[in-house]
């Protein structure tokens, strides 16, 4: 094994490169990324970057960059260059260069779904443009009351900008959370002075606003890899629990990959969150260096969002078969929701302003702990099995 090529200059790519060197790989590492910047952290793009200089926030993309010395690690970086073609053992870039590899890691993330109008948010440049719009003070529309829609609406209101959010479903995050949670979140929009129009699937630019942000999700763009790879319907690469694609020697990690989860019954799941882009490479690299089977990728999914002055955190994975148990009152600033499966095992926790529930829940979900529903419902007591 002499040459590893990592395609995709985001967080998952960076952690792959870093981990290759940390685990002692001494061969050639080439790191290809379409954006012209070194890898940077994306969550601040819908939070601190939008807050603008008035709040002492980010002014340069370098402030978001992950600390890593590519020169010292002898990584050959090709930023500002896109992979456009694949054949066994070789990736072709947009400038016509052919990069040969012994192992290939695809970490190309995803791109926002476009509706044919409005702007989207994925890169630092998108965020700076959006900040200018928000601070321009003219009313804006957001399509999609998901995580990013809510965070941008928060930033707009903090800047004093009027904002209308159009949501196709009857409540925010209807695909993930039950009606009671969606109703609580609906109230957050109202409190912040955001007009939320639910059951309102827009098909063109909403009238009466200066600009529109479309935030209806993101999909991997893996077309450049051609036909040889197995994909899920959304274009993500289907990989094993060891993060290898169906093409031997080619791996995928981060937002681009739908991995086989042993924990969740062998289903392929795509986790589009920061924590997965951090942990995936840690499992991936042993499989690349020592052989497939060296390390399983099967974390309990975790993510957070900061919206309307609240820290919202979710750990685990629940289904509609699980029983929802409330800790606290949904109309107050802090509460949690736990989900118990039919065997009373804790499957997931949604914590709003209750980081302790999250931390304790994370341990219990990981352990598959069985809990007593009445005790779970006691918001004054710690979340434990005892
Ligand atoms: P990406 O970060 O998308 O990086 C992929 C890189 O590959 C990109 O730079 C892209 O340009 C490049 N690329 C794509 N195609 C090619 C190609 N053909 N050739 C070369 N390069 C290519 N998660 C949370 O858990 N909490 C949050 O609060 C949160 N906030 C977020 C806010 C925003 C605005 C966004 C966009 C995401 C947020 N996320 C959050 C999600 C988190 O940032 C992603 O899960 C994470 O960035 C995924 O990392 P990745 O490396 O897989 O993909």
From TrEMBL:
GO annotation, cellular component aspect: cytoplasm
InterPro entries: FAD-oxidoreductase/Apoptosis, FAD/NAD-bd_sf, FAD/NAD-binding_dom, FAD/NAD-linked_Rdtase_dimer_sf, Reductase_C
All residue ranges annotated as the Reductase C-terminal domain in the record: 302-385
Cofactors named for this entry: FAD
Coiled coil spans: none
Domain FAD/NAD(P)-binding as annotated: residue spans: 3-202, 209-278
Keywords: FAD, Flavoprotein, Oxidoreductase
Record Pfam families: Pyr_redox_2, Reductase_C
One function term, GO molecular function aspect: oxidoreductase activity, acting on NAD(P)H
Residue ranges crossing the lipid bilayer per the database entry: none
UniProt name for this protein: FAD-dependent pyridine nucleotide-disulphide oxidoreductase
Annotated organism of origin: Catenulispora acidiphila (strain DSM 44928 / JCM 14897 / NBRC 102108 / NRRL B-24433 / ID139908)
């Amino acid at each position: 094994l002499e040459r590893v090529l990592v395609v995709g200059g985001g967080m998952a790519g960076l952690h792959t490169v870093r981990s290759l060197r940390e685990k002692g790989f001494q061969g050639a590492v080439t790191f290809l990324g379409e954006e012209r910047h070194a890898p940077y952290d994306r969550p601040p793009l819908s939070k601190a970057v939008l807050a603008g200089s008035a709040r002492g926030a980010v002014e340069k993309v370098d402030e978001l960059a992950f600390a890593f010395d590519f020169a010292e690690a002898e990584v050959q970086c090709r930023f500002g260059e896109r992979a456009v073609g694949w054949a066994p053992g070789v990736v072709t870039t947009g400038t016509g260069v052919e990069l040969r590899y012994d192992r290939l890691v695809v970490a190309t993330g995803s791109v926002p779904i476009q509706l044919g109008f409005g702007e989207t948010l994925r890169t630092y440049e998108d965020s700076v443009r959006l900040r200018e719009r928000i601070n321009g003070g003219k009313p804006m529309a957001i399509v999609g009351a998901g995580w990013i829609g809510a965070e941008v609406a928060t930033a707009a209101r903090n800047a004093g900008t009027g904002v209308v959010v159009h949501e196709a479903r009857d409540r925010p995050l209807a695909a993930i959370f039950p009606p009671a949670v969606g109703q609580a979140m609906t109230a957050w929009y109202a409190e912040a002075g955001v007009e939320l129009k639910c059951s309102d699937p827009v098909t063109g630019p909403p009238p009466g606003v200066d600009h529109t942000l479309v935030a209806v999700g993101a999909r991997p763009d893996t077309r450049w890899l051609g036909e040889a790879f197995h994909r899920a319907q959304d274009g993500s690469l289907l990989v094993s629990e060891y993060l290898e694609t169906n093409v031997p020697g080619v791996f995928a990690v981060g937002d681009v990959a739908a991995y086989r989860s042993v924990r969740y019954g062998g289903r392929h799941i795509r986790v589009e969150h920061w924590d997965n882009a951090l942990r995936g490479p840690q499992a991936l690299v042993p499989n690349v260096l020592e052989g497939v089977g060296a390390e399983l990728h099967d974390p309990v999914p975790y993510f957070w969002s900061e919206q309307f002055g609240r820290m919202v955190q979710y750990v685990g994975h629940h289904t509609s078969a699980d029983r929802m148990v409330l800790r606290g009152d949904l109309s107050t600033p802090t509460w949690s929701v736990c989900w118990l499966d039919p065997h009373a095992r804790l499957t997931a926790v949604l914590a709003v302003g209750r980081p302790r529930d999250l931390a304790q829940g994370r341990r219990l979900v990981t352990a598959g702990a069985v809990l007593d529903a009445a005790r779970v419902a006691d918001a004054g007591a710690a979340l434990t099995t005892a």
